[in-house]
Amino acid sequence: MKIAVAGTGYVGLSLATLLSQKNEVVALDVVPEKVEKINKRISPIKDEYIEKYFKEKKLNLKATLDYKEAFEGAEFVIISTPTNYDEEKDFFDTSTVEDIIEKVISMNDKNITMVIKSTIPVGYTESIKEEYVISNIFFSPEFLREGKALYDNLYPSRIIVGDKGEKGKKFAELLKQSSLKKDVETLFMKPTEAEAVKLFANTYLALRVAYFNELDTYAELKKLNTKDIIEGVGLDPRIGTHYNNPSFGYGGYCLPKDTKQLLANYKNVPQNLIEAIVNSNKTRKEFITEEIIKKQPKFVGIYRLTMKSGSDNFRSSAIQDIIKGLKADNQKVIIYEPTLDKKEFAGCRVVSDLMEFKEKSSVIMANRIDDNLIDVRAKVYTRDLYSRDD
Question: Residue 122 is inside which H or E element, if any?
Answer without folding.
Answer: none
